[in-house]
Amino acid sequence: MTADSAAWEALRLSLWVACWATALAVPLALWVAWILARKSFWGKSLLNAAVHLPLVLPPVVTGYLLLISFSPNAPLGRMLSAMGLQLAFHWTGAVLAAIVMGFPLMVRAMRLAIEAVDPKLEEAAETLGASRISVFARVTLPLIGPGILAGAVMGFAKAMGEFGATITFVANIPGQTQTLPGAIWAALQIPGGEGQAVMMVMMASIVAVAAVLLSEVLARRVSARIAAK
pTM of the entire structure? Predict the structure, then answer.
């Protein structure tokens, strides 16, 4: 595999991992954000702390915890392997690491959006006979659309840039688990690899800027649609 093909393969794998991580994490993050914003229950502080723990733990520690939890020798890893799902040293593990690291950012953005919605709007819809699911789908969800987009973009960007937890959990295997950050790190370990590293840094920067611009456009369209109603 040439240097250029290795860089493109790392970019392809990074986009694949980031898209899967974002798609899988958004629904769960929205549910957790809604619980934290709207519900009062015993253990809420513990749930909030658990959600935000990856923000304060060193990424390598998070990756090591994932490794000892989901390695083929761990009970949970054996159970998932029996179901045909391998995580450690596999691209699916990179998706899990990206979800864990980006989840707090998603929840935070979505929770702020939900808390900004006046609960009286939801109560008024309920008094008119709408079910809670209908109120959430027709009142709350449109109002928090920009917040969901912002959370999704933050999670996607975090997944694209994730390194510490990923390399600890799934290693840095070219063509299998080597995402752009791992490929940049590997290139910098080789004398004369600075040029390839710069090219991959430019790739990562272009993708990040494109994601931010796209989210801005989508958020403006959602806000305009809400204002027009």
Answer: 0.88
On the CB side of 101, CA atoms within 13 Å amount to: 29
pLDDT tens for each residue of the chain, 229 residues long: 565 788 889 999 999 999 999 999 999 999 999 999 988 889 899 999 999 999 999 999 999 999 999 988 888 888 888 888 888 889 999 999 999 999 999 999 999 989 888 888 888 888 887 788 888 888 888 888 888 988 998 899 899 989 999 999 999 888 889 999 999 999 898 888 888 889 889 988 888 888 888 877 877 776 676 666 5
